[in-house]
Design goal:
Number of helices: 4
CATH class: Alpha Beta
CATH architecture: Roll
CATH topology: Nuclear Transport Factor 2, Chain: A
Largest sheet: 6 strands, mixed
Shape: globular
Strand order of the largest sheet: 2-1-6-5-4-3
Number of strands: 6
Number of domains: 1
Length: about 160
């Protein structure tokens, strides 16, 4: 089993109550469209050097691994990342939706990103798998966890 799969399994094990009802197809479709729109907005803001939409959309209990090791936790961890990206507006990322699931008030979205320009303007050919765990908060959604993983030698 791959690491992202294990991560999501454990997140869902604690986040989804056993009594959660199976959502209807139209509920799944609506949640998917809403969350995918938020994801695209986050990356659009990020490409303009603004990380605030990500910070504002995160749960206070947000958790994600750093690519270089260690963990980013809570909104403070995201603020540190946002500070390092502030003002860098040259990043270019194409997002490719892959999968979505919903159970109760917990959703998981999976997509593939193709980054062709880093925030500092450096041209690259980088592919990342991204998995986000979302939880419903009132009428909206918050990101509870993120599991990005660079894909080496990806061939579309």
């Amino acid at each position: 089993m791959r690491t992202p799969t294990l991560f999501v399994f454990f997140m869902l094990m604690f986040a989804v109550p056993a009594s959660a009802q199976q959502p209807k197809p139209e509920q799944i479709a609506a949640a998917k469209e809403e969350i995918w729109a938020i994801e695209k907005s986050i990356y659009a803001s990020r490409s303009q050097g603004n990380f605030q939409l990500y910070i504002d959309g995160a749960s206070p209990n947000f958790l994600a691994p750093f690519p270089t090791g260690g963990w980013e936790s809570g909104r403070d961890g995201l603020r540190r990342t946002g500070t390092s990206l502030a003002g860098n507006s040259r990043e270019k990322i194409a997002m490719n939706f892959k999968a979505f699931t919903l159970q109760g008030d917990t959703a998981v979205i999976y997509y593939l990103n193709h980054r062709t320009v880093r925030p500092n303007g450096e041209p690259v050919d980088e592919w990342y798998e991204v998995m986000h765990v979302w939880v419903r908060k009132g009428e909206g959604w918050q990101i509870l966890a993120s599991m990005p993983r660079q894909v080496i030698d990806y061939k579309p």
